[in-house]
Specification:
Blueprint lengths: L8 H13 L5 H8 L3 H13 L3 E4 L6 E4 L13 H17 L2
Length: about 100
Amino acid sequence: MTMTNKPDETVKSQVADFIKNNPGHRASEIAKGLGIKSSTAGTALSALFKEHRIEVQGRPGHYRYYAASSMSMPSGFGVSAGMKLFNDCLAKVRACQYQ
């Protein structure tokens, strides 16, 4: 039996759908919402990030996950107005790159 850190495509799809429908959740909240292990969620999140399908906001241990196309942060989220503007502009630039 070979052990890999490659996530199951079904799990990746479930995690991506969860993030799309519930933006801004932490990894532990995603795992709990889907009824999967935190390590399984972490592996899927890492793969989705590498594929540019999700974006991450926050600091280590407190990351929040968003679908790549829904990076506009809710107002009052704790991000300064300047940082929110920067994130919104960056998301638009990234969206143009992948068209």
